[in-house]
Amino acid sequence: MIGLEHFLVLSGTLFCIGLFGALAKRNAIAILMGLELMLNAVNINLVAFARYVTTGILTGHVFAIFVIAVAAAEVAVGLALIVAIYRDRISVNVDDFDWLKW
User: Nearest to residue 12, comparing CAs of 34, 45, 51?
Assistant: First the structure.
């Protein structure tokens, strides 16, 4: 039988993979993908706790839907920024983003 612990292990693993992707990659699109994995791990936690801890109350599901909406907006704005930067710099490597350096 699948219990809460299985969902927590899955969520923790997914979050660690996303964190590694966000910190280790140099490509801006790969960093956004890592952030999306971390947000999906949070969604798994929210739904799992809503299912196993507070049965009958849909608070975790509602928060998960809000996280999905925020993630969709973040991806739209992030990709728009990356496309604008790519048009100016012809690169999406975060090491090339040095506009604020003196």
Answer: 45
